[in-house]
Amino acid sequence: NTARSIRARMNLYYFIPLGVLIIALHLLVHRELRAYLLDKTRSELRQNAALLNDYLKKTVLTGQPLAGFDPALSRSLAAIKRDLLPYRITIILPDGVVVADSDGGLPLENHAWRREIVTARKEGSGSSIRRSDTVNRDMLYLAVDTGPYVLRVARLLTDVEAEMAGAERLVTVGSLGLLLLVLGLNLFLSWKFTQPLREMRLFVERYEGGGDPYRMPVAREDELGILQGTLNNMAERIDRLVHIIRFDKQRLENVIGTVTEGLVLIGGSGSVSLVNRVFLSFFPGGTQAVGLPY
């Protein structure tokens, strides 16, 4: 029970901090993974926006002046979204007027102060994550200033989150695997560490119960191994002393047995400790006197 209690405390003391550390690492990886996937998605949107802009200039925007909202151009963007790129596509004039949108069949409100548009006009490109009022879903936007207009592409955040969920499952499985590995290693090490304690408990129980002499195997050179060796040496000395005491007692009994008169030995406590056979011949019940006060 003592060894098991020590093992339980060892497992508790080691497992809790390690578990907290692994959980903290999991949360850190989750945060970094989200940032990585968002950056990766922004980079893909930026590359696709550049390719899309070249395609638009060669096809639907050839010589076409851009003014107010153009339903025909919106339908062309919707076809591009359906057949080529699975992104929402929006063309916005420098003053914020929406010329065309792949997901909007009606004129949209002015986008001049949308964060990604403002950043794109200042820095060449900009991005933001927010809920779209048009499609009523969370989206990742990326806008590129092409000069005559701002080309904006957007991807549903649920698509990014689905990709993130797959990666997070791998991270979660890895974290649980690491946690189980640490737990198994900790259980093995605690069992190995408490093995000498179990041997010492068995050693004490055998001596307490008066069993056969028992010596512990000493396979360690640390403090526990030194303690085991010390207990073994102590047991050797005790066995020798017990042997000497038994031998002296037997010799004393033999000497007393040769006395031809009745003899009673009184111990230091004043009680009868031994009687000889002659005494018993006089008093057949004399054996009951052993241990009684004289």
Features:
13% strand, alpha+beta, two-stranded antiparallel ribbon, five-stranded antiparallel beta sheet, 7 strands, 294 residues, single chain, 59% helix, 6 helices
Task: Provide the succession of SSEs.
Answer: HHEEHEEEHHEEH
Radius of gyration: 46 Å
Widest beta sheet: strand line-up: 2-1-5-4-3
End-to-end C-alpha gap: 46 Å
Describe this structure in words.
By secondary structure, the protein is an alpha+beta fold. 59% of the residues lie in helices and 13% in strands. It contains 6 helices and 7 strands, in the order ααββαβββααββα. Strands 2-1-5-4-3 form a 5-stranded antiparallel β-sheet. A two-stranded antiparallel sheet has the order 6-7. Strand 3 and strand 4 (138-145) form a beta hairpin. Helix 1 (2-58) runs antiparallel to helix 4 and helix 4 (157-208) runs parallel beside helix 5. It is rod-shaped, with a radius of gyration of 46 Å. The two termini are 46 Å apart. 15% of the residues are buried.
